[in-house]
Write a structure and sequence with these properties.
heterodimer, A: 255 residues, mainly alpha, two-stranded antiparallel ribbon, 2 strands, B: 301 residues, alpha/beta, Rossmann fold, Alpha-Beta Plaits, six-stranded mixed beta sheet, four-stranded antiparallel beta sheet, 14 strands, 34% helix, 28% strand, globular
Chain lengths: 255, 301
């Protein structure tokens, strides 16, 4: 397993793409906070200079490419014709992806702090923000919120990539999940109106989880018609299910 | 005990048998040619041996250890190049070797391997693989197959894209490794090249092994053929056929087989006052033998 991880990191660090992702993650908040007057606010700082959406997009693309590229290059055969089990190969890919997500969050965070210090002089990070605490707490919650969403979207992307062996469809679906949230929300609400049981549909659960931190728990319960705890459990079940399906397809596939 | 034992392996896709009771062995230090037409099951067999594909029944044993879709513990000492080389476009040749060498504690010496597989010249080792020609990729693929100092190397069409000099050098490399005890299982459509290289042949057709033999045994079954050019091929053909020998005219030359010896053929033709202008003895042609064997197998079905 350690060998596999070493190999995955070796391949990743030899790709210019990784450095471009990380540099863009750093530059994005610097540019947003530096250029736009409207971004010189606590809200923008907490959203890491609006770079969280970039981090999500990059995460989706990285996830989709992590396996589909091996098929595209024809390198999947030597990868799977070694002493390692397919489970180990799959997990090494997941761990690499998680490392890259952490790198993306870190670069965006550092870029935001630097941009705040330079372009919003005198900004007080200890000032109270909303009901969650000070700016540091709010930033942490924003990152956690996006990270939790990313785990879900990444599971979906990984599952679709394994099903169709192509990154295009998976990236498309992942992007839709992020940028078309209002449309998904409307469709989901219409479906729930028709059949209340559909409140358990994965998109509704995803939308509910995306709203944690933005809506107070009591309001959330009223809106979602389920407790926050039930929503989190459903969310976890969906994540496990999607990663499980992705793994099963990967394990069974003849190459 | 053979290094690789493939025993009664079956693989079905729906009703179609991709591997039909496939059995053969590969001994240490032997070069085995896995030969057959397109779709015969060569790549399928190689994929089953390398654990890339499940099989319905049977056993594959490497060095006494079972190899299955889920059990890869024996694969450490098998190198392979199946269908096309596994190349990451953004890595150099040297980086590829470093990457794949991480799999083992005792990899081959990079410099020696690069020299042997000719990936040491023209800054080859330092250039990104996306700029490689087909032949360069192929040579790198072969180097990757050898990096773990394998006991068995599986090569599917290894001569693809190689120039004549590289084909010659690859042949020499394979032979020298085989002399050192490494076994090879090679499939190729370049039968002339294969004929110069392999010790044993395994012929596969429609997923079924139709012959396994050493090259000597394989050709000992082959009939000697004579190619003649006469001043009247049509009449000569008629005379030979009257003797119950097999004959045909191919590219303006008479192909004769079935006689006990060449003298019988010459005597029969001379008796008809036909002049023989040139004469060649052709025996042990892998391509011709394979085609005859496949034709007979296809007719039998």
């Amino acid at each position: 397993m350690l060998t596999l991880m070493k190999q995955e990191y070796y391949k990743a660090f030899k790709q210019n793409r990784l450095y471009i992702w990380l540099i863009l993650g750093f530059l994005f908040p610097v540019a947003i906070i530096g250029i736009f007057k409207s971004a010189k606010t606590a809200g923008a700082v907490i959203n890491l200079g609006q770079s969280l959406i970039y981090v999500q997009m990059a995460g989706i693309i990285i996830t989709a490419l992590s396996i589909s590229q091996e098929f595209g290059f024809g390198t999947i055969r030597p990868l799977l014709s070694r002493r390692f089990s397919r489970g180990e190969v799959f997990i090494s890919k997941l761990l690499l992806n998680i490392s890259v997500y952490i790198g993306l969050f870190l670069s965006a965070f550092i870029g935001t702090i630097l941009a705040t210090v330079i372009f919003i002089p005198g900004y007080d990070f200890s000032q109270k923000y909303g009901y969650v605490g000070n700016t540091w707490h709010a930033i942490l919650i924003s990152i956690m919120d996006v990270a939790i969403q990313m785990i879900f979207v990444a599971a979906l992307v990984l599952m679709v990539t394994n099903m169709v062996k192509s990154s295009g469809a998976a990236i498309g679906l992942g992007v839709v999940m992020i940028v078309a949230t209002p449309i998904i929300s409307v469709i989901s609400l219409k479906l729930i109106d028709l059949a209340p049981i559909l409140k358990w549909n994965p998109f509704n659960i995803y939308l509910g989880i995306s709203s944690i931190g933005q809506i107070e728990p009591s309001a959330m319960k009223q809106l979602m018609n389920m407790s926050q705890g039930a929503m989190i459990i459903a969310y976890l079940i969906y994540i496990i299910l999607m990663y499980g399906i992705a793994y099963l397809i990967f394990r069974k596939r003849s190459v | 005990m053979a290094l690789l034992e493939v025993k009664n392996v079956n693989k079905k896709y729906g009703n179609r048998a991709a591997m039909d009771n496939v059995s053969f062995n590969v001994e240490a230090g032997r070069i085995v040619g896995l030969i057959g037409p397109n779709g015969a099951g060569k790549s399928t067999t190689m994929r089953a041996i390398t654990g890339l594909m499940s099989y319905t029944s049977g056993h594959i044993l490497f060095d006494g250890q079972s190899v299955t879709f889920n059990n890869h513990s024996a694969l450490d000492k098998i190198g392979n190049l199946i269908e096309y080389p596994a190349i990451y476009p953004n890595l150099t040749a040297l980086e590829h070797l470093k990457l794949y060498a991480m799999d083992t504690k005792n990899p081959a010496d990079f410099k020696t391997l690069m020299k042997k597989t000719q990936i040491d010249g023209d800054n080859f080792g330092k250039r990104k693989a996306k700029n490689f020609s087909l032949g360069m990729k192929q040579r790198l693929g072969i180097a990757i197959a050898l990096i773990r100092n394998p006991k068995l190397v599986i090569l599917d069409e290894p001569m693809n894209g190689l120039d004549p000099q590289s084909v010659h050098d690859l042949r020499e490399l394979i032979r020298s490794l085989a002399d050192g005890g490494v076994a090879f299982l090679i499939s190729s459509h370049l039968l002339d090249e294969l004929q110069k290289l392999v010790d044993d042949v395994v012929i596969i057709n429609h997923g079924k092994i139709i012959q396994t033999a050493t090259m000597e045994m394989f050709f000992s079954q082959d009939q000697v053929r004579w190619t003649l050019l006469t001043n009247d091929n049509e009449r000569a053909l008629q005379i030979i056929q009257e003797q119950d020998w097999q004959a045909s005219v191919d590219n303006g030359q008479l192909q004769v087989s079935g006689a006990d010896n060449l003298q019988q053929v010459i005597t029969a033709i001379n008796a008809a006052n036909i002049q023989i202008e040139s004469l060649n003895t052709a025996s042990g042609n892998l391509e011709k033998s394979l085609l005859d064997m496949l034709a007979a197998d296809n007719q039998g079905e």
